[in-house]
């Protein structure tokens, strides 16, 4: 899992061959999240913020232990807390670490119209290259997991990188390193699948979870982040994990049978407008709130920096 | 902990109760997960709320806060009724077979109290709480009220049939704790309780001794007016099931801070000296009288042996006095016995603050704690500080104690300007800014280095204390005083007296030879001035000094053992003998002789800890044997070497506890109903309450809801409200309540509610959840709520006026456990209103 696995194997909106494609055999990395041993301690959330130097944002109490309703452009790793009553009357408090799933067949990458803004490394990591991002937000529409988030200040989209910078140096992602119970595992996809199946078998045989199983959905070609679930037949219980995620039809068409349409600039532009409307549509209040909060936070940070600067250099 | 964090990976069964380790000890909790992953171990979580621990448990029971003894007593009853007990272990390694004094009476026979109760003084004459046997009479000429000794040879019945033997009394006592009674008291439905009892005791199904169960608890057990007795009940259950001394077993207290274990080891308590030695009282006329009272004499069936390790008490104590006073402690001056304060009454936390409230304590040095916030009854604490002349607070953040004068209540009362207390706030060092050792829950001492330099004008806490001491000594030198000797003669031989290097303090704790020593058996020699290898070398003739006997071995001639970082684990059982150092003598599991049968063979050959080696005639093993190394199994020496009986105490005789030799269920001081076992004697009979204006107690009529306090993973006490990262994770205080209760009251999640007790009010947002449900207590629908306590009036959000500024302890009261003096933070009464 070192630098050779960081070769690019897919690239958004790129015409022609990708340099170095298929020249050597590599293995795909994978993160395995065992939700049955997760205690929701949020060490992964903190590790993610610290390693990636993400700025703080404001949160408000919302009748849950969950830090915020969904991931943000500056909060890539979020544990979702859900209370669920089983049929026998017993309670489950399901905790699922939510982040980019690093799909083998990434909808974001398929949807992206900007050359090289989204790439997939040979090791399977899907990474956004903000330098090439045009801020159109199509990737947001293309993601079946609602992961990429737009930063209105920089006009770029951000998400979990699976700590590509660490993985490239042979280290595990920061969240994996921080996990105290060891519910997070990292390794080759094959090894992780093996481990996941063993644990699911143990849960079926020795614990009261007859439907325990592994989440690695085929609709997106399998994911670089897999889950072990107490009940794999009901992934929706875990904060709306889609049962059969697919790349949205619009994106499939856009990149598939009607790709020629894209070559006709005007129609392409219209579709673009339509998708843009789908995504940003009539401005909703919550969105506005978050943007205001971010603007406020940044204003404050700038002010603080200015004050500090003045203090140091009166 | 009898065992240790890593050892939890060896268990088959966990009863986690009075603790929420997934929340409060997430790093240690990995070992519980290991046991689940590698051994298919089960977790039973019993808690007033469905917690993060419950989320990974295999069985959850919602218990009424404070009814733990009823639950555990019920499990004891279930184990006996269903023969899920460790018979050989019970007969040979516990006092189950011991006969008890005929005059001893159980509360089931005497209106809810044990024999000897003085209803006027709320105390017990504990002389009947004794074993039967010759020599158990009060010696002639003893002080009035003195307790008799334990008989040198105890009457016993190995068939356990004698109606007055410990086992039969135990059986009789807990036969009242039927599943029906457990349901009525605890609110846990009978079927669910039976499932929990069956699951936990299943490790002893059909007499099998291989499997092991552990009991894991924290302050959810200690924070009661009968907290010590809850833990006692757990210990008795573990003895009954043969789980003590064994890998994956034991009774395991999880400490809430990195160094609480060290604080108690080092006697951060008024009633012990370092290493849990007993303090002298005014009745001790001299050193010998003190030692006579403090040193137990052995007491066991005639054919058995008891090592009675505390018979060495005088060696530990003289060595401690030499560490305190050096050459000034001599045999001639009774080892400076007169220098020690004589403890004449209760000086525990609530009593100290009460003394300040009454104007008797004029000032306070507060280091490493936020007294206003952590103590019960915040308002009383603030009122007490108003009366103090001065207050010194050493902290890393501005805290509620140093700014008590700007608490919401003081501001509301408008008497801020009348407060005369002078407050000095000193910037101290954070944990990463100083070196030293932590003693963790597993009794492991782990040295740490300084990670970052002290910022700005900050000082080391112990440097500040040292400088205060040196100044006081200077004044005594200059001006004399009533009794300067203890101050002037205190040993202070540090290379830097103003800032004693902590490794020198650890060396002092370990102890050294003051004269050349030789072990007569091995001829091993230690020269004067050398560090001692361990406490076995301690002498009571003044030739050794040792600051805390249980830490002897931590810093030897081979260097600082606590700084060792060898991760290897040859046995694979999580012993890691070269990682740090654990007291006593680097043993990882206490009483590990009990991991073997009477013949000295491990109960479970796949988890071998120690065993008797017939060839070398010695106890050997993967862990350091906690036993007399050359005592052959045929001599039947008891494995519980720290008890004078040599065996585990199912019955705790004489002065061991203030409130009974067996735990009895008593209601919390504030409770929604009268005790169903004995309504006339509802609460712990030896608990007394303060009677000051601020000490108010409520009844169910005005305060119908049960309330308990708890902590969150995302926050650390009252510190992290100053850290934006933690504040982002959980930004505001909240109150957890059942969805059903919220519906009835018309409260929605996120709306503000006011919780009031007889003492004060607390306002925060409602967390409406399915994780707390209504309960039927004696058939009556009852609710309980939970309040995380991490907030106050100083912090990022508080300073910006974004959240309420209340302290959860505004609600709690000052009644305490009679043994450990811990306040009843869990299980008190409140009412809840929509704001």
- The helix/strand order of chain A is EEHEEHEEHEEHHEHEEHHHH
Mean pLDDT of chain A: 87
> What is the level-2 CATH architecture name of chain A?
2-Layer Sandwich
Q: What class do helices, strands and sheet pairing of chain A give?
A: alpha+beta
Give descriptors for this structure.
heterodimer, A: 314 residues, alpha+beta, Alpha-Beta Plaits, 10 helices, 11 strands, 32% helix, 17% strand, globular, B: 835 residues, alpha/beta, Dimethylsulfoxide Reductase, domain 2, Rossmann fold, Barwin-like endoglucanases, 6-stranded mixed β-sheet, 5-stranded parallel β-sheet, 23 helices, 31 strands
3D structure, described in words:
By secondary structure, chain A is α+β, with helices and mostly antiparallel strands. Chain A has ten helices and eleven strands. With 835 residues, chain B is of the alpha/beta class. Among the domains of chain B are: 6-256 and 646-656, Dimethylsulfoxide Reductase, domain 2 (3-Layer(aba) Sandwich), CATH 3.40.228.10; 349-485, Rossmann fold (3-Layer(aba) Sandwich), CATH 3.40.50; 679-834, Barwin-like endoglucanases, CATH 2.40.40. Chain B is built from 23 helices and 31 strands. In chain B, the strands form eleven sheets. In chain B, strands 25-27-26-31-24-30 form a six-stranded mixed sheet. A five-stranded parallel sheet of chain B has the order 3-2-1-6-7, sandwiched between helices. In chain B, strands 10-11-12 form a three-stranded parallel sheet, with no helix packed on it. The longest helix of chain B is centred in the middle third of the chain and has 19 residues, at 461-479. Chains A and B meet through helix 1, strand 4 and helix 6 of A and helix 2, helix 3, helix 21 and strand 27 of B.
């Amino acid at each position: 899992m070192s630098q050779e696995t960081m070769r690019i194997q897919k690239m958004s909106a790129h015409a022609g061959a990708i340099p170095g494609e298929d020249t050597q055999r590599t293995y795909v990395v994978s993160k395995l999240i065992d939700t049955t041993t997760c205690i929701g301690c949020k060490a992964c959330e903190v590790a993610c913020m610290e390693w990636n130097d993400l700025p703080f944002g404001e949160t408000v109490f919302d009748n849950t232990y969950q830090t915020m309703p969904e991931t943000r452009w500056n909060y890539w790793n979020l544990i979702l807390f859900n209370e669920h009553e089983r049929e026998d009357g017993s309670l489950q408090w399901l905790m699922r670490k939510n982040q980019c799933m690093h799909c083998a067949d990434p909808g974001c990458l398929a949807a992206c119209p900007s050359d090289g803004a989204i790439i997939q490394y040979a090791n399977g990591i899907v990474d956004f290259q903000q330098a090439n991002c045009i801020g159109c937000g199509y990737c947001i529409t293309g993601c079946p997991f609602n992961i990429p988030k737009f930063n209105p200040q920089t006009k770029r989209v951000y998400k979990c990188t699976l700590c590509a910078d660490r993985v490239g140096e042979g280290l595990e992602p920061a969240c994996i390193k921080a996990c105290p119970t060891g519910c997070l595992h990292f390794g080759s996809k094959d090894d992780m699948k093996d481990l996941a199946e063993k644990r699911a078998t143990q849960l079926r045989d020795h614990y009261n979870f007859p439907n325990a199983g592994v989440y690695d959905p085929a609709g997106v070609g399998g994911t670089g982040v897999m889950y072990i679930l107490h009940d794999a037949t009901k992934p929706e219980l875990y904060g709306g994990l889609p049962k059969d995620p697919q790349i949205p039809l619009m994106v499939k068409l856009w990149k598939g049978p009607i790709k020629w349409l894209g070559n006709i600039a005007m129609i392409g532009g219209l579709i673009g407008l339509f998708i843009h409307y789908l995504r940003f549509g009539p401005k909703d209040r919550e969105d506005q709130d978050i943007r205001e909060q971010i603007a406020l936070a940044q204003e404050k940070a700038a002010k603080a920096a200015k004050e500090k600067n003045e203090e140091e250099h009166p | 902990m009898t065992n240790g964090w890593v050892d939890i990976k060896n268990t088959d069964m966990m009863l986690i109760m009075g603790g929420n380790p997934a929340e409060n000890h997430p790093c240690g909790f990995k070992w519980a997960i290991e046991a689940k992953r590698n051994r298919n171990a089960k977790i039973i979580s019993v808690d007033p709320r469905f917690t993060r621990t419950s989320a990974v448990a295999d069985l959850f029971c919602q218990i009424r806060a404070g009814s733990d003894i009823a639950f555990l007593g019920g499990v004891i009853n279930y184990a006996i009724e269903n023969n899920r007990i460790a018979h050989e272990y019970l007969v040979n390694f516990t006092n189950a077979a011991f006969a008890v004094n005929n005059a001893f009476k159980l509360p089931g026979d005497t209106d809810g109290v044990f024999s000897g109760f003085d209803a006027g003084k709320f105390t017990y004459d504990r002389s009947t709480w004794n074993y039967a046997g010759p020599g158990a009479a009060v010696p002639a000429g003893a002080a009035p009220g003195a307790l008799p000794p334990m008989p040198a040879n105890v009457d016993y019945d190995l068939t356990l049939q004698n109606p007055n033997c410990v086992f039969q009394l135990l059986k009789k006592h807990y036969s009242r704790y039927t599943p029906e009674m457990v349901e009525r008291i605890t609110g846990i439905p009978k079927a669910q309780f039976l499932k929990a009892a069956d699951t936990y005791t299943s490790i002893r199904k059909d007499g099998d001794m291989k499997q092991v169960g552990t009991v894991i608890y924290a302050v959810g057990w200690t924070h009661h007016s009968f907290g010590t007795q809850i833990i006692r009940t757990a210990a008795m259950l573990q003895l009954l099931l043969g789980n003590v001394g064994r890998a994956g077993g034991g009774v395991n207290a999880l400490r809430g801070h990195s160094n609480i274990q060290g604080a108690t080891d080092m006697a951060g308590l008024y009633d012990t000296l370092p290493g849990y030695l007993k303090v002298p009282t005014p009745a001790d006329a001299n050193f010998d009288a003190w030692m006579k009272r403090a040193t137990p004499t052995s007491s066991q069936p005639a054919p058995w042996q008891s090592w009675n390790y505390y018979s060495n008490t005088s060696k530990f104590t003289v060595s401690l006095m030499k560490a305190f006073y050096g050459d000034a402690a001599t045999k001639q001056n009774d080892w400076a016995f007169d220098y020690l304060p004589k403890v004449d009454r209760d000086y525990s936390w609530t009593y100290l603050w009460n003394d300040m409230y009454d104007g008797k304590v004029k000032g306070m040095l507060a280091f490493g704690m936020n007294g206003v916030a952590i103590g019960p009854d915040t308002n009383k604490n603030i009122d007490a500080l108003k009366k103090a002349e001065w207050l010194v607070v050493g902290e890393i953040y501005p805290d509620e104690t140093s700014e008590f004068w700007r608490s919401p209540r003081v501001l509301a009362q408008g008497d801020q300007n009348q407060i005369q207390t002078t407050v000095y706030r000193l910037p101290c060092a954070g944990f990463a800014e100083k070196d030293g050792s932590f003693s963790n829950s597993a009794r492991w001492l782990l040295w740490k280095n300084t990670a970052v330099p002290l910022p700005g004008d900050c000082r080391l806490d112990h440097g500040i204390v040292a400088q205060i001491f040196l100044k006081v000594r200077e004044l005594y030198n200059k001006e004399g005083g009533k009794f300067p000797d203890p101050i002037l003669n205190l040993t202070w031989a540090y290379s830097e007296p103003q800032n004693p290097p902590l490794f020198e303090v650890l060396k002092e704790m370990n102890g050294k030879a003051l004269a050349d020593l030789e072990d007569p058996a091995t001829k091993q020699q230690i020269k004067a001035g050398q560090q001692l290898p361990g406490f076995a070398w301690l002498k009571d003739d003044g030739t050794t000094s040792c600051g805390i006997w249980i830490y002897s071995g931590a810093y030897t001639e081979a260097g600082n053992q606590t700084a060792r970082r060898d991760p290897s684990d040859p046995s694979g059982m999580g012993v890691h003998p070269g990682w740090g150092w654990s007291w006593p003598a680097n043993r990882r599991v206490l009483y590990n002789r009990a991991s073997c049968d009477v013949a000295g063979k491990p109960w479970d050959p796949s988890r071998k800890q120690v065993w008797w080696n017939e060839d070398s005639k010695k106890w050997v093993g993967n862990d350091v044997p906690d036993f007399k190394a050359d005592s052959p199994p045929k001599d039947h020496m008891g494995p519980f070497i720290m008890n004078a009986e040599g065996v585990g105490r199912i019955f705790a005789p004489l002065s061991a506890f203030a409130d009974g030799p067996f735990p009895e269920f008593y209601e919390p001081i504030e409770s929604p109903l009268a005790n169903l076992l004995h309504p006339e004697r509802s609460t712990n009979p030896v608990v007394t309450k303060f009677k000051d204006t601020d000490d108010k107690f409520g009844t169910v009529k005005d305060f119908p809801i049960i309330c308990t306090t708890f902590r969150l993973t995302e926050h650390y006490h009252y510190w992290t409200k100053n850290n934006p990262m933690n504040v982002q994770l959980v930004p505001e205080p909240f109150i957890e309540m059942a969805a059903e209760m919220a519906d009835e009251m018309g409260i929605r999640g996120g709306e503000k509610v006011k919780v009031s007790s007889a003492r004060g009010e607390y306002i925060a947002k409602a967390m409406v959840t399915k994780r707390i449900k209504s309960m039927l207590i004696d058939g009556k629908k009852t609710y309980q709520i939970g309040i995380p306590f991490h907030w106050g009036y100083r912090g990022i959000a508080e300073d910006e006026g974004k959240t309420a500024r209340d302290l959860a302890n505004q609600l709690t009261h000052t009644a305490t456990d009679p043994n450990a003096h811990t306040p009843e933070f869990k299980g008190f009464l409140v009412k809840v209103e929509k704001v």
